[in-house]
């Protein structure tokens, strides 16, 4: 029966009913997950028909995954869609001296696109493949605007929609836009510089994009408006964004309450925190999805709950930068809907969940206020709620067939205990065996449809190295790359 998996064509739906079985299946009952020992999942034409034991109907094929966990596909609402530049800041500080903020000299010389349209299209295809490798079936992409001329382009997102359709990934897309950007005037002093009309133009393009692309590729592609960050958005732009989201029937994502620079900038501009500012303008609602909330005050969190805002928790990225959500369990107890995001490379959601568990317990100073299941819920049910969807994030009859299969007999993850605890505390994306999205086989044994991952890895590295070589142009005083990003230890080379 396991051989039946090899007969399926990557990127395609199998004809007829497919029955999957494994030692564990994550089922769904009474609005929550359940665990089925030696359970079965049956799907056809992208829809789940049955989850349980002893299916009595006819099937075209049976695939026994053995000692694995058949899970709902993971939902990533801050999913990297470029070649991650934030990893350059892991050991290199401060950010303003390392090309993370445009210096005035670069602005006056004229910002430009540091990637070609072909490179932008490639990096989205490559990033989407990495999401599938990690068991992620639904993604709301995010990319840095630091190396862009201003915002993202319609052309690259047309290519992104096609990439999602060809690879088989469920995505929420539209090009990011902004009213302004942070400019480094002198060491340590950053100020926002605005061009509101440019923001309006970007919003108009994003709306037209969603109207044209929404529902394409068998409804794998849907729209989400994506103003870049709260400190680079004017009130008028956010008001128009909210109105557009209402008219389009879509969500909009806005990064806020996530860092000291943002908090200080918003206070300088508007006299309050970002959530308080938006609440006064009537812009907090269940249309809003808000990463990261690590700098949210008690008042901010209360306003989120009262207005139905969902937050996107990215504990790996936040913790790596020295901040945490304070805390996951406290936000959950408030009734705040929490979704998950990876926001970096690799987009390892399982590792992300482990970091979320650890940081929550450190903040709580107690081990019993959060469980592995709570983090898993956020990466599945929480993401679905944030998107306003009841047909993804769980496995039950009538849901879409978005499925991830995780190995439980990995040699580095022994012994196994409860399957959810096992994959959260001991797993990583590397245990992802197979992924189905809307019933299509999108990933099998580290292969995806239409992309040679080894060649793509080589191309991604060359493209990334080319970007790093341009960093002196956009760093204060234009130091060489060797000074911007010195090695961990001195490098010695062999004599010629």
The general outline is: globular
- Tell me what portion of residues adopts beta-strand conformation: 15-25%
Overall radius of gyration: 22 Å
Name the structural class: alpha/beta
Under the CATH scheme, the architecture of the largest domain is: Alpha-Beta Barrel
Describe the structure.
- With 496 residues, this protein is α/β, with parallel strands linked by helices.
- The protein folds into 2 domains: 131 residues, Roll (Urease, subunit C, domain 1); 317 residues, TIM Barrel.
- The protein is 36% helix and 21% strand.
- It has an 8-stranded parallel sheet with strand order 8-10-11-14-15-16-17-18. Strands 3-2-7-19-20-21-22 form a 7-stranded mixed sheet, covered by helices on one side. Strands 5-4-1-6 form a 4-stranded mixed sheet.
- Helix 3 packs parallel to helix 4 and helix 13 packs across helix 15.
- The longest helix is centred in the middle third of the chain and has 18 residues.
- The mean pLDDT is 96.
